[in-house]
Amino acid sequence: MRIGLLGTGNVARALAQGWSAAGHDVLLGSRRPEERTGLGLPVAGLSETAAHAQVLVNATPGTVSLELLRSLGAAALAGTVLIDVGVGLSDDFTELSHPNSSLAEQIQEAFPQTPVVKTLCTMDSTAMIAPDSLDGPSTVFLSGDDVEAKRTTGRLLTDLGWPASSQLDIGGITTARGQEHFALLFMGIANGLGSHTFNIKVVPRPAA
Ligand SMILES: NC(=O)c1ccc[n+]([C@@H]2O[C@H](COP(=O)([O-])OP(=O)(O)OC[C@H]3O[C@@H](n4cnc5c(N)ncnc54)[C@H](OP(=O)(O)O)[C@@H]3O)[C@@H](O)[C@H]2O)c1
Question: Which InterPro entries match (predicted)?
């Protein structure tokens, strides 16, 4: 599958490496591709990356993602599955930029022809592509209104090492706010643990 990733930071590079290793055709999208040589991954401009993508991943700072996507234009994104990993946080990680909503909902509203799926934003980039490196199975969440886009995303998660049993579809795109707002608790856990490399696991009651 042709996967475009907007951003060349920790998340974009990790996911590109993970999906490249699984055999996908990945392309990183940068505002300044000429300055992003030596990443060991192909890099292009943002528009070229969007045009390349069957699935496009937003891995840019959540505070600017909507503006960046708007600059690409709705026509460029129409029909493309958009996996949104972004979270809008203040520089000191204490305030959300979309406190009574979510970035993913706002992207979906702005781009109705682009099915948006929120996932992976509840963990560190190292855990995103190496769930097996943690001390036992954990949970990755999916939020989105489009069933087929969530199926596609689920397959791509499997390619990163997330078995179906670790994937939890929590509902429509409005549930993305739960994933994004978890960032505040994530930072607290990271402080308590002294590490960002952890994940949460949903532990249901045993079946009767
Ligand atoms: N790091 C994590 O473990 C983690 C975990 C969960 C969620 N997230 C979320 O995932 C997104 C990406 O995180 P990250 O850690 O990969 O961030 P990062 O290392 O700061 O990279 C963000 C990338 O976005 C691009 N970008 C586009 N517009 C930008 C702007 N106005 N200012 C700065 N960068 C801009 C930059 O690439 P170019 O300069 O090449 O254009 C930059 O490399 C964020 O929304 C973050 O909250 C991160």
Answer: NAD(P)-bd_dom_sf, P5C_Rdtase_cat_N, STEAP_metalloreductase
Q: Where are the domains of the chain?
A: 2-193
SS percent in the chain: helix, strand, coil, step 5: 40, 20, 40
Residue type, 110: A
| 41-52 residue pLDDT tens | 999 999 999 999
What is the CATH class of 2-193? alpha beta
Is ligand 1 within 6 A of the CB of residue 102? no
Number of Cβ atoms within 10 Å of the Cβ of 37: 8
Our answer on whether the CB atom of 3 is closer than 6 Å to any ligand 1 atom is no
Atom of ligand 1 nearest to the CA of 89: 47
Beta carbon of 124 within 6 Å of any ligand 1 atom: yes
d(CA 108, CA 174): 10
Q: Calculate how far, in angstroms, residue 65's C-alpha sits from the geometric centre of ligand 1.
A: 9
pLDDT in tens, 52-106: 999 999 999 999 999 999 999 999 999 999 999 999 999 999 999 999 999 999 9
